[in-house]
Automatic annotation (TrEMBL):
Gene3D superfamilies: Collagenase (Catalytic Domain). The keyword Secreted does not apply. InterPro entries: MetalloPept_cat_dom_sf, Peptidase_M64_IgA. Residues 1-15 form the signal peptide. The keyword Glycosyltransferase does not apply. GO terms for molecular function: metallopeptidase activity. This is IgA peptidase M64-domain-containing protein. Keywords: Signal.
Length: 639
């Protein structure tokens, strides 16, 4: 080994010459295509024609394109749409893929008449955000219905004042989450920044996204709303004059829709690399939100962070629901077949009860009733629901959510006529909240009734019953409810179809009032983020002269600030494993060192640095996303 190890590098004692040359790794920027596809007809709307984007680490020599797709509620709540994102090194591959994804049987011949502004062959979208034809869509590819394409009208992006809230690095190698204001007056810019700062702190300061925060940048992009129309629309009305047109549907403290997706898209696009996950904040103190192309939330004190975490779980990890009564159950935390190992088999608690074929048992539970009434309550007649119990379970929980009920005397919640002694979350006011009333006794076989009886007449018009559900559980032996226990738990969809989840209530994708994901989702989060972020930020080489006059060749690798390089102490067990090689030989003395110095006279040759981020939060990394390697060659001597 022709290497000299210099034990201490005291910079003051060395002269730096020539200056450090910076060999910034220039990762290939792949092309990205974004489609909205009708789930049944496969008619497509090209939201983004191929354009260059951040590197995608799932694109490898054997993997010519990477695809992400999910079905989400439309921006106006009218049905669902599948968002498909495809990545490839070459634009042509995306156009080919487009033909496969979109049903050409539905192409309307008139799509290709002169009324549509299209070019053939398709050309890439101009990358300049302000280009006149930014939002013009191309209709020349088979499978694209021009009517759907041209629904998008060109809009000028709203004025934006952008601030960095927190983050650790250049957007080229980070995932960027960007908050956009809606319904904030020009004079409320500071309130917006405070709202965003608080939300970011709540979701990444000490919990939820805390361990992955060094992979993220958070931005706040302020756009003022019109003074006259400041009142935030409760329903979609004429002349919504906020930048993105956020609105509620009637009185529901529920979904927060947006009327101007094309404006939001253009605003996000104008930020380039700094807008991977756009979030629209509607300036309203009460519950509301939506997941999808844009996450929408409010700065509600209690519900803002809760909705934000949950919706970002859907978009960043790409997981479905874990709560009952939803329609989409997918991702690393969802299983559908008990005859096969679950996707989280490597997280199962060791003593989890294995059945004969070594597969874990399903914890015993049933959901005899579940409803989303979203109904206003009145004092004239209570809202009631009846259901039948099989009488074979040991315990149960009554789970419901209410809004507009700040005091405990406002309403009686009765179970078979017995008062459940509901009390509101302290300090909640009229906002929405979720309640669980656990009852450690068995229900008798036969009919039971849950009743919501409004007592306070003054709450009529705002008192609302949002959701109600009853779950029955087996005994301690049949249903392990211990936090931290990973097994197989049944989840019941809106159609009462069963899928499976890893923990009872450890995940905010199930219990939205908890602040953290379960380990299975956290692992999914790391893998998802590391598919776009490389553990190696850059490598550099340089020269140093010692005080004795000899020259050293220096090699340095800059890593994401994780493990031993975190700003604060790591809250989990994690570290980088770093290995340097020269002409294929491991440089033994340099294990786990980021900056090395070699005798210049013997430093010519081929080098590589291999970095693996080892964390207890990831147990399985089949694609090697936690590892990265850089190769380079030293061609010349320092002196
Ligand atoms: C994290 O900080 C919030 C306040 O921002 C606090 O309510 C919560 O208890 C903290 N959680 C942990 C795990 O320290
Ligand atoms: C769901 O299905 C289970 C098992 O078939 C049944 O016992 C339960 O009552 C059903 N619940 C609802 C809400 O339909
Ligand atoms: C009062 O609420 C009950 C239960 O939701 C409903 O059936 C009834 O129509 C309501 N009455 C009025 C006057 O709104
Ligand atoms: C409960 O079961 C009884 C007997 O099968 C049936 O008559 C009744 O309609 C059921 N109640 C509900 C709410 O499903
Ligand atoms: C496993 O299941 C059996 C019967 O289903 C039960 O008797 C036993 O207590 C369970 N063991 C654990 C560790 O949950
Ligand atoms: C660290 O890297 C070395 C060399 O590549 C390898 O032998 C070792 O198994 C790695 N250790 C861990 C914990 O990954
Ligand atoms: C380098 O760090 C990894 C991860 O902490 C550790 O497993 C390995 O033993 C270290 N290597 C040496 C030679 O210290
Ligand atoms: C470095 O990483 C590459 C690719 O992951 C792997 O093939 C090679 O064996 C690694 N070398 C060392 C010394 O760990």
């Amino acid at each position: 080994m022709h290497v000299t190890v210099l034990l201490t590098l005291v910079v003051g004692a060395l002269s730096l010459s020539p200056p450090l040359s910076r060999h910034q790794h220039v990762p290939q920027k792949p092309f990205e295509l974004v489609l909205h596809r009708e789930p049944e007809t496969h008619l497509c709307n090209v939201v983004h024609a191929p354009r260059q984007t951040k590197p995608h680490r799932r694109l490898t020599t054997s993997q010519t394109y990477a695809q992400e797709s999910k079905t989400v509620t439309r921006h106006d709540g009218k049905g669902v749409v599948e968002i498909v994102k495809v990545y490839a090194a070459e634009e042509e591959l995306l156009w080919e893929r487009l033909g496969e994804l979109c049903d050409s049987g539905h192409v309307d011949a008139s799509a290709f008449t002169s009324t549509v502004d299209y070019q053939e062959p398709p050309v890439a979208w101009l990358p300049e955000p302000d280009a006149e034809d930014q939002l013009r869509l191309l209709a020349s590819t088979p499978g694209i219905d021009s009517k759907l394409c041209t629904v998008e009208k060109k809009k000028s992006p709203v004025p934006l004042s952008v601030r960095h809230i927190t983050g650790s690095g250049h957007s080229a190698n980070r995932v960027d989450l960007t908050f956009f204001s809606d319904g904030y007056l020009a004079s409320e810019e500071d309130k917006f920044i405070q709202d965003v700062t608080r939300l970011v702190e709540e979701i990444s300061g000490n919990q939820t996204f805390h361990t992955v925060a060094p992979l993220l940048n958070f931005w706040a992009a302020f756009s003022p709303s019109n003074e006259a129309k400041r009142r935030w629309c409760r329903r979609q009305a004429e002349g919504i004059s906020t930048p993105f047109g956020l609105y509620r549907d009637g009185t529901e403290l529920r979904a927060l829709y947006y009327a101007k997706p094309e404006v939001a898209r253009a605003a996000c696009d104008s930020l380039g690399d700094r807008c991977d996950y756009p979030i629209l904040i509607g300036n309203d103190p009460l519950y509301g939100g939506l997941g999808g192309e844009f996450v929408t939330i409010t700065p509600s004190e209690v519900n803002g962070p809760l909705v934000l975490r949950h919706e970002l779980g859907h978009s960043v990890i790409d997981v479905g629901e874990e709560y009952d009564g939803g329609f989409a159950y997918f991702g690393p935390n969802a299983g559908h077949d008990t005859n096969k190992p679950m996707p989280w088999a490597h997280w199962l608690t060791h003593d989890s009860n294995l059945s004969n074929d070594k597969l874990p048992r399903v914890e015993r539970a049933v959901m005899p009733i579940q409803a989303y009434p979203w109904t206003l309550l009145n004092t004239t007649a209570p809202w009631k629901i009846t259901f039948n119990s099989s009488g074979t379970y040991s315990r149960h929980v009554v789970r419901f959510s209410l809004s507009g009920l700040p005091e405990e005397d406002d309403i009686d919640v009765l179970f078979d006529g017995h008062d459940l002694e509901w009390t509101p979350k302290p300090g909640l006011g009229v906002d929405r909240w979720h309640y669980d009333i656990y009852r450690d006794d068995a229900l008798s076989e036969g009919e039971h009734e849950i009743e919501f009886a409004l007592r306070a007449g003054k709450r009529e018009g705002i008192a609302q019953l949002c959701s109600v559900e009853l779950l029955e559980f087996g005994s301690d032996e049949e249903f392990n409810a211990t936090p931290g226990f990973y097994g197989v738990f049944p989840t019941f969809s809106e159609k009462n179809e069963t899928s499976y989840r890893p923990t009872n209530e450890d995940c905010l994708m199930r219990l939205t009032t908890t602040p953290n994901f379960c380990s299975v989702c956290v692992e999914g989060l790391w893998l998802s983020l590391l598919s776009r972020v490389d553990p190696i930020d850059s490598i550099q080489t340089g020269c140093l002269q010692t005080d004795r006059g000899s020259w050293l060749r220096t090699l340095k690798v800059d890593l994401l600030p994780l493990g031993q390089f975190r700003a604060g102490p790591p809250s989990t067990n994690e570290a980088y494993n770093i290995t340097w090689t020269n002409d294929g030989q491991i440089l033994d003395g340099f294990a786990n060192i980021t900056s090395i110095a070699l005798d210049d006279r013997k430093a010519l040759g081929k080098y590589s640095v291999n970095v693996t981020f080892v964390t207890e939060e990831v147990r399985a990394d089949p694609e090697g996303l936690l590892s990265s390697e850089r190769k380079f060659e030293v061609f010349d001597r320092c002196h």
